[in-house]
Design goal:
two-stranded antiparallel ribbon; mainly alpha; 12 helices; 2 strands
Length: 200
C-alpha cells in the first residue's frame, strides 16, 4: 500500500523505495543508504512530495523523516525528526535511536511520546495473525497494548545474539510499524485522518 496520493512525487519515491530497498535491518548499516534516493529526497520539499496538498507541514516533515529512515539514511532521518516538536517527531526519533542502536536514548523518546494511535494497530489481532512467528509479539503486546519499550528490548537482545531466531519476526514488526506511522503522518499532513489504518 502506497501511503501517498497518486501522481505525487511522494508516491513515486515510495514506489522506488519498495523496488530498490530490501528489508531494513534492525540496526542501521552505515554503508547501506541508496545515494540516488537520498539525494532525490533531499532535493524535494514537502510541497513537492505531497503535490501541494499539505495542510499540516509538521506531519509532512515527519513523513519525510520516515522516508529517509526507510532508505536507511540515518543522519537525514535523525536531523528531520529531532527538529519536530510533535508526537510523530518523538516517535521517529525513538525508532532512529532504536536502530542506532542506542536503547536508552530510544526509550527516552518513547517516554516523551507516550501513547500513539499507531500502537493500537500494532497490538491488533491483524498484526498477530500476519506474523511468521509470535514469540516476541506475545511478550511485547499485553491485552492489546503495544509496549515500545519491550520492542526496544527485544531488538537489543536479537542484535546481541541472544535470540537470533526471532530476527524475521522483529523485522516484520518494524516494517509494519514504519508503514503504519508513515501512513498516519501522510494522512495527517493531508488533513485526511480517515478511518483506522489496517495492517498490510
Amino acid at each position: 500500500m502506497n501511503p501517498f496520493p497518486a501522481s505525487t512525487k511522494g508516491a513515486d519515491v515510495y514506489v522506488r523505495i519498495s523496488r530498490e530497498v530490501s528489508g531494513l535491518g534492525l540496526v542501521h548499516a552505515p554503508s547501506r543508504p541508496q545515494v540516488a534516493l537520498v539525494n532525490e529526497l533531499k532535493a524535494l520539499g514537502v510541497e513537492e512530495l505531497f503535490g501541494g496538498q499539505v495542510v499540516d507541514r509538521e506531519r509532512a516533515m515527519a513523513a519525510r523523516a520516515g522516508l529517509f529512515l526507510a532508505i536507511d539514511a540515518w543522519d537525514e532521518a535523525h536531523a528531520v525528526a529531532q527538529d519536530l516538536d510533535i508526537p510523530e517527531g518523538s516517535y521517529w526519533h525513538g525508532v532512529v535511536h532504536r536502530r542506532e542502536p542506542d536503547a536508552s536514548n530510544a526509550k527516552y523518546w518513547f517516554r516523551r511520546l507516550g501513547h500513539h494511535p499507531v500502537f493500537d494497530q500494532l497490538g491488533s489481532p491483524q498484526t498477530h495473525q500476519a506474523l511468521p512467528s509470535v514469540a516476541a509479539f506475545d511478550d511485547i503486546v499485553t491485552a492489546g497494548y503495544w509496549d515500545p519499550f519491550r520492542f526496544v528490548d527485544w531488538c537489543t537482545r536479537c542484535e546481541e545474539g541472544k535470540r537470533p531466531e526471532l530476527r524475521s519476526e522483529l523485522q516484520e514488526l518494524q516494517q509494519r510499524e514504519m508503514l503504519l506511522l508513515l501512513t498516519y503522518c501522510v494522512r495527517q499532513a493531508l488533513g485526511k485522518p480517515g478511518q483506522a489504518i489496517h495492517n498490510q
